[in-house]
Structure prediction request, 416 residues.
Amino acid sequence: MATANTDPSPSVLRHGERLAPSTAGPSRVVSIDIFRGLTILVMIFVNDLAGVKDLPWWTYHLPGNVNGMTYVDMVFPFFLFIVGISLPLAVRHRLSKNESIAGLWVHIIARSFALVVLGIALANGEKADALLTGVNGNVWLLLTLVGAILFWNVYPRSHKYSTVFKGMRAAGLLLMVAMFAIFRRTGADGHAAWLDFSYWEILGLIGWTYLAVSILYIPTRRWRWAPLAWLVCLVALNAASLAHWITFTAKLPYYFWPWNTGCFCLLTMAGIVTSTIFLSDSLAATTKQKALWAFAFAAALFLVGWLLTPLGISKIRATPTWGLYSAGAATLAFLALYWVCDVHKRVRWAAIVKPAGSNTLLTYLLPDLFFVTLGGLAFLNPWGHGWQGVMQSLIFTMLILGISAILTRSKLRMQL
Prediction:
């Protein structure tokens, strides 16, 4: 699959417990699942649309040497934003089960590592050398993803089949390990090389960002204004990096400095601030107060973004204006969904995206699974240009969402 060059997916974190199942009960905020589902719908569409030619400029990512942004450039930020909205609820949920802080950190590190592993697999699939690896890239990626699904699938609680399910999980882990062990590509020097870590893919970037923001948020989570203070710090870090006042941020590897230039992290931290506004009563108790706080927060994000426009507006360069404009738009989008879905309880219109919102990780992987198995069939790409290509991308998106709904109803769901 030709993934969009966004530098998700995913959150992919769900509020109850995941990359993510919903928390049941009357307190469930359905707009979170719907926000996530709509985001992944747009992601699948724009990723497929990237291969369609002869469309207006605003239907593609803008190149890095252009100042500006399109709606396509906002898909990845929306994923990072929903990670932030979900994070406080996920932390609260785990600690409510009497889990220790040490146990919480083990969970966060394991989840981050899993996202990074999946991101590396997706980023390297096309680079596998069939002669050196023993299988071509499509087969390698297919087997790796099958292993991931077996390992991270949510199996039913069954004493009768518990041994079978444990065996399937172990088989999935062994398959993934074997695929990574045999992987070989041809390096720039012409010699055999192992995995390429120069690009983490959307899932890997989400994993690093999730870890980096957790490091900031969890120790300070009891202080109401801490997320906003961290957001200011991250905006300052991003601005200083883009202004070249500091240069180490973009040079250090993610495993040493997961905050990078601060742009991805500010998007997730903005989601945490939005979560504080909507999902607790500590700042705003009534719907009207929540709406006013959300409008004020979004306005502040847009204003600061506008003030920082001399540093550029670019997804590729991860400029603060791109991040702040995206965060402001995501805040207003969540406000609209919260008003419609949680206040007025109008959710039937979103039935098509709810399975994707509750089974996000598997839905994210479905296009890749589709293309490594059926993508080579000529009849699946009959147009490839103009508005006919747009219709094809829409049909493909609906197909993936339909498959996701079927798999979700069949109890096939991935959870990190």
Notes: The first strand starts at residue 185 and ends at 186. Residues 1-26 have pLDDT under 50 and may be disordered.
